[in-house]
Amino acid sequence: MSCVQEARDGRGSFSRGAGKLSITAIILTFDEEVHIERCLTRIAPLVERIIVVDSFSTDRTVAIARGLGAEVVQRAFKNQAEQFQWAQSSCVIATEWVLRLDADEYLEPGLIDTLRHCLSALPDDVTGLDLKLKVVFRNRWIRFGGYYSTLLTRLWRSGAGYYEQRWMDERVVLTRGRSIRVKGGDLVDHSLKDIDWWTDKHNRYATRQMVDFINREHSLFAIDHRVDRNAHAQARWKRFLRNRVFAGAPLYLRSLLYFFYRYILRFGFLDGREGLLFHVLHGLWYFLLIDAKVDEARGYISENGVDAFRDHLRRRHRIAL
């Protein structure tokens, strides 16, 4: 079933008007009632069209989104990359640009103003825009630890961007042209959910990271190398560090060294109490958890073989390779 067939009514609130740009915003959701109103109301004055792709939420996410005028389509979730690429391919997008947002993200006013002034004046060979990510954890901006340096290509010309198919850390690949950095404001990641949700989410993320690491050892599925060739320099450099340097270091030791780098050498301790919790959880616990899952997966494959491991992923984690 196509996106157009599945979409519901309710476009009126986001019809094109004064100040709106030729942008379609695509937002993936599952149980995001705490975030979805903030996300939609902040982006609505900027974009021509909003599409919410929901994975059968059990809360009021869909009702809120439809009530605010977004188009809503529901579809079973496999992973972020596959879900977003389906939306981009199946929904008939007539705008000049596509914007990808998560429900717990929003654009700062300064960034919105910059886009209003610069988007229409960009040369044709600029097909992607890189936004700087600002993470807010427990209502505190995580400024140090090297974390406030991440650039993400989140806005691109229709037809010029494709999400690489990975289980984790997927990025947009530009099929033509180049990307440039947009200044004036940030893309803000500010979750309002509790620590149980955060740790549950990162436990799932650690499993997906494990799959990507094990795939490099046992070729579970084809690797999409386009980001290595076409992404901006920072994305290529981070991918190199993860796949060559971090992946080649001893399990567990690499996680400890990474935390030391982030918390001490990159001054993560200056982020205060909230920063201590964030850097310990995200820069140490999370990476130790990935290592534990990689260690466990290697042992499973050694005893049972790769095919049995594929079946284990499907049964235990609902990951069908």
UniProtKB/TrEMBL annotation:
One of its GO terms (molecular function) is transferase activity. InterPro entries: Glyco_trans_2-like, Nucleotide-diphossugar_trans. This is Glycosyltransferase family 2 protein. Residues 25-125 form the Glycosyltransferase 2-like domain. It holds the Pfam family Glycos_transf_2. It comes from the Bacteria. Keywords: Transferase. Belongs to the glycosyltransferase 2 family. WaaE/KdtX subfamily.
